[in-house]
Amino acid sequence: MPAVAETRKTVETLGQNTYKWGFETDIEMDIAPKGLNEDTIRLISSRKNEPQWLLEWRLKAYRSWLEMREPTWAKVHYPPIDYQDVHYYAAPRKKPGPKSLEEVDPELLRTYEKLGIPLHEQAMLAGVELPEGEEARPPVAVDAVFDSVSVATTFRKTLQEAGVIFCPISEAVQEHPELVRKYLGSVVPVTDNFYAALNAAVFTDGSFVFVPKGVRCPMELSTYFRINARNTGQFERTLIIVEDGASVSYLEGCTAPMRDENQLHAAVVELVAMEDASIKYSTVQNWYPGDENGKGGIYNFVTKRGACRGARSKISWTQVETGSAITWKYPSCILQGEGSVGEFYSVAVTNNHQQADTGTKMIHIGRNTRSTIIAKTISAGQSDSTYRGLVRMMPKAAGSRNFTQCDSLLIGDRCGAHTVPYIENRNMSARVEHEATTSKISEDQLFYCRQRGLSEEDAVGLIVNGFCKDVLKELPMEFAVEAQKLLQISLEGSVG
Amino acid sequence: MNAIAPVGISPSAFLDRGDVKGNAARLRAADYLRTVGLPRAGVEAWKYTSLRALADVPFAAARRDVDAGAVDTLLAEVETISGLGAGASRAVFVNGRFDAGRSRLPQGVRVAAFDPAAEMRDGIDPAGDVTTALNTVLADDGLALVVPAGVDAGCLLLVSIGLAGEDAPVSFHPQHRIVVEEGGRLAVLDAAVGRGYYLHNPLYDITVQEGGYLSHARIQAEGKKALHLAVSHARVASRGVYDSFTLTLGASLSRHEVHAGLNAAGASVHVNGAQLLAGHQHGDLTSVITHGAPDCISRQTVKNVLADHARGVFQGKIHVERIAQKTDGYQMNQALLLSDTAEIDAKPELEIYADDVKCSHGATVGALDDDQLFYLRSRGIPGEAARSILIRAFLHDVVDQIDDARLKDSLNLAVEAWWKREVA
């Protein structure tokens, strides 16, 4: 069994890889003192010039958070978090807009470069004011969240012409308060869970998308989340509303600088799809996972939920999770509208000492609702990866369907892969199907590739990509390419 | 899930009855019941089954002087259900007490008197779960049987008869210990019946030694008002087989918890079952299969047929330890809902720490397949008859998993009887 031995050996050497995107940008920051109390929340709210109702909403969230306990049911272990030892607000200092890329903080540009953002997009992200008549037309609109404040939003104009609102949520609070007030917290209530309550109390920014009736959003919307300042909790809040017959595809990508202390991230994403609306939400998450000894890394406690409110609406979650020391994330769909559709496609890769507990919830309320869950889990090193999912058929969900497939791949004998599905059915005509498998890369597959001249690393890469194909094909083109690279990088060294 | 967890309800009525003096296991179990108590809402292992029915009910010790006529009637009922006539060897327990007069133990086995002071074998934690703890504190009788090496002890009918009034709740907690030594064989058909308001809380302490074979089929057909909380702890050695089946038909609230440990290479275990529930019945089959050694096999198929307002629960966990390479684990859970008010809650779980394993599970839940119904109806079979054929085929499929032909026949008979009584 030389292949097994080699795989093991390579898994062991895996930790020697350095995090490719471990870098830190040194920009002047405006930071609130550490700790969480009502004053911190009032400070955040006043810095952002928020209306009274939002402050009260935050305070309500904070007060219920005080009553809550951190959930312990997930299969993740970490030392207790001191929530008073975190900065809850950090914003880059405001400067007047630069005239060209030369005037932009070189540190920021280097960050963009390492992220692989094309030059003309970099200019837009950095807020460079382009001369009259000159308009670059990349196919993606990027709203870069640089720590907690959106540095710049591009392609606002093109979107505006279509009637699409795409802006930082703090701006939406100022300019479209009626929309924000109506929908904020309507999918994930402030009291939903410990981390969602914390987020509601202290969120600093995030993206806001509104697609009006009948509009097909003219471009893919994308946000780059970056956690940047030392000891800054990142509390993003994203709200996407798609009206009747409208559609949008939203891309979220994450990388973060390398650092030693664990960083807390508790984001909330809310999606609302009305009649015949469709939302596609894709994520590539590659935050710093900690080093080969499990030191450092991001704690990622995220609440993502979509409500299919209207008939025939559709919400599709696709995620590629390769980063973070701890992942606690269950993008869910509430299928309320008759004939609405929920989808969840996930690839989760853990290595070294990473721990991931991720999955989805599909709550079927309306008649003839359908959901599909495809979850692929790959564990290497000494990591633990858990799929945890719930499919619930409510009494009125007649004729509803669910299909779930969870496959786990173990690389090495010191990791763990777990599957914890919950199936609850209260309607006799609803049908739930679930299947799960656990296996390793077979000697036969490896041998077949090797004898055709592929290196072991390429062979494993090929097999792993094939294992994840059902999920990767759901990603938008540019993300699919990035995701394949990420899988390769994440397992690099483990295989050759 | 975030509320501060209160301590569970203290089962003081039970604690007052248990004599724990000088018995370490009982002390530990009593301590568990006192401090942890009955599971409160939010305890993961009891997510879908509530033991509120036990709280605040002063379950008294079951009477020993019971109506002999009623016992004989129920015993005849068991013989009818099982198809095992009066000639078969049997061990009869009435209200948890061994009834020597009605029992005929098989040849070639060793039977010891129940010794409450005897320590449970290694690997059973008296305070590991509430069902085990409750039994440990209150057990005062049970079958202690050893099948010697190389002996085929045939088929044993293990009967539990519960007799209680409608208003004065009683409980009994037998503790059965079965050891099958190297190369020994035994088939146990375990049937529980009864009348009145009682709690039957049996514990099965099962050891299958090298190359031993134990087939253990349970027919739980308790009275309508009864509560049934059973727990099995099985340990299987190299090349040993523990083939178990639980058929749940009776009781208003029941749970059978199976903890099976595969502790030596080449051991195998089957934890199959079927729950056929109607009315407002609640049935729970929970199992934890632990692969603690390489090259072991586990198989599990559990089916539920739920009518009226019945609620079926299945929680099955396959735990594969780091050392258990070459594990072969399979788990299938299916449910048919016959009414819009029935409910199934399933949690099939895999926890895997070894990489060279073959583990899979599947679950399907829903109504009868329209295509299958159409197929039969297009051949002239009336709707109701077609439904009946499909549901019984669904059940025969799982009963078929039992190796022992005698047990298989008995279970098929019991399924047919239930079908005629409850649905047809």
Give an overview in words.
- The complex is a heterodimer of chains A (496) and B (424).
- Chain A is built from 13 helices and 24 strands.
- Chain A is an alpha/beta fold.
- Chain A has one domain.
- In chain A, helix 2 runs antiparallel to helix 3, helix 3 packs antiparallel against helix 9 and helix 7 crosses helix 8.
- The longest helix of chain A is centred in the N-terminal third of the chain and has 16 residues.
- Chain B has three domains: 264 residues, no CATH class; 90 residues, no CATH class; 57 residues, no CATH class.
- The N terminus of chain B is likely disordered.
- Chain B is 20% helix and 39% strand.
- By secondary structure, chain B is of the alpha/beta class.
- Chain B is globular.
- Strand 24 of chain A pairs antiparallel with strand 22 of chain B.
- Chain A: This is Fe-S cluster assembly protein SufB.
- Chain A: Pfam families: SUFBD_core (PF01458), SufBD_N (PF19295).
Summarize the topology.
The complex is a heterodimer of chains A (496) and B (424).
Chain A: H1 2-14, E1 29-31, H2 38-47, H3 52-67, E2 90-92, H4 106-115, H5 119-125, E3 140-146, E4 149-153, H6 156-162, E5 165-168, H7 169-175, H8 177-183, H9 194-202, E6 207-211, E7 220-226, E8 237-242, E9 247-255, E10 263-265, E11 268-273, E12 278-286, E13 298-308, E14 314-321, E15 326-329, E16 332-335, E17 341-350, E18 355-358, E19 361-364, E20 370-379, E21 384-393, E22 401-410, E23 416-425, E24 431-440, H10 443-451, H11 456-467, H12 469-472, H13 477-491
Parallel strand pairs in A: 3-7, 6-8, 7-9, 8-11, 9-12, 10-13, 11-13, 12-14, 13-15, 13-16, 14-17, 15-18, 16-19, 17-20, 18-21, 19-21, 20-22, 21-23, 22-24
Antiparallel strand pairs in A: 1-2, 3-4, 5-6
Helix pairs in contact in A: 2-3, 3-9, 7-8, 10-11
Chain B: H1 12-15, H2 24-35, E1 60-61, H3 68-82, E2 89-94, E3 97-98, E4 110-112, H4 130-138, E5 144-147, E6 152-163, E7 170-172, E8 175-180, E9 185-195, E10 198-200, E11 203-208, E12 213-221, E13 227-236, E14 241-248, E15 253-262, E16 268-277, E17 282-291, E18 297-306, E19 311-320, E20 328-337, E21 343-352, E22 358-366, H5 370-377, H6 383-399, H7 405-423
Parallel strand pairs in B: 1-7, 2-6, 5-8, 6-9, 7-10, 8-11, 9-12, 10-13, 11-13, 12-14, 13-15, 14-16, 15-17, 16-18, 17-19, 18-20, 19-21, 20-22
Antiparallel strand pairs in B: 2-3, 4-5
Helix pairs in contact in B: 2-4, 5-6, 6-7
Domain SUF system FeS cluster assembly SufBD N-terminal (chain A): 158-217
Protein name (chain A): Fe-S cluster assembly protein SufB
Organism (chain A): Komagataeibacter melomenusus
